[in-house]
Fold this sequence. Notes:
Elements: H1 3-11, E1 19-25, E2 33-41, E3 44-52, H2 61-78, E4 102-103, E5 109-114, E6 119-120, H3 128-145, H4 163-176, H5 186-193, E7 210-212, E8 221-224, E9 230-233, E10 240-242, H6 244-255, H7 273-287, H8 293-297, H9 299-319, H10 332-362
Antiparallel strand pairs: 1-2, 2-3, 3-5, 4-5, 6-8, 7-10, 8-9
Helix pairs in contact: 3-6, 3-7, 4-9, 6-7, 6-9, 7-10, 9-10
Amino acid sequence: MSKESSVAAAARQFEIDGEFTEVQPYGSGHINDTYKVHFREGGAPHRYILQRINRNIFKRPVALMENIQRVTTHLAAQVANEPDSIRRVLRLIPARDGLAWHVDEEGNYWRTYRFIENARTYDAVESTEQAFQAARAFGRFQQLLATLPAPRLHDTIPDFHHAPKRFKALEDAIAADVAGRAILVKPEIDFVLARRSITGVLLEANLPERVTHNDTKFNNVLLDDATGEGICVIDLDTVMPGLAPYDFGDMVRTTTSPAMEDEQDLSKVTMQFPMFEALVRGYLSTAGGFLTKAEKDLLAFSGKLITFELGIRFMTDYLAGDTYFKIHREGHNLDRCRTQFKLIESIEQQEEKMEQLVESLAS
């Protein structure tokens, strides 16, 4: 069976009326296989997002889908009385057996969402207004899920943001040096070891556990085509229990620098303060009402920690022989690592100013 045929066969297992007409690869994600599928009913076209879940990354797909089903159901109820509510939450299409997912004959797990029309994602932020809108959307996402009833969501990737464990994994990779690369990254190793003390700051701050997105890249918010509003948060695979500053920190990491994550010209890597200010204003405009003072106090710091954490992960993979992250060139993970560390240096140069801004806006 061809790939197109297998995708079409999976699409037909969901409660979608009409005739299947077309399938296209969709988006820029690197984890799941994502397609836009087209159906036609009574002459009218309908579009859906169909995804095959990457089981190499997500070992417990049923738990993952149970999380998404609970979260989307709760969000839909929270926004039901708002204008344009159908576009403000991802809507799962049930499979024909009543489950929120379908398992094909090869054991692949599939899910389908209603396609949200007249909105799009951007791989790179183009303005402070866009940064504001994305941060506002992520803050509201946390705000609405603060009332999610028990039980606790599943941990789909245990210890995902456990920085001390990430640091220990790096130390182990340095000691093992299975690819013989440690000698090539001595400056980077020294950089990491000098910042060991920051790894436990969030975990030791006694912050309340929240429902967090855990992948708050700028391109995980749909912006409305007409108004530019952050209309819907997408990519819910890593929604699970966490700390609120994790999400804000990842916004800082992915939105404030104009450089790509694997930029080789490090002179392009900088933490742009106007972008940071837009993120703070947008996030606090929705999340500010439920965050504790301790959570707000750590927002400026969180960007440095999450950037450090990802840099550690890239370096660990580089030392281990590039076994986790997909690479497209020799030294790709090292380039990614160096970009994160350069961003940390830029953050550290502006850290006091960042803290003063958060304090003034949070008070």
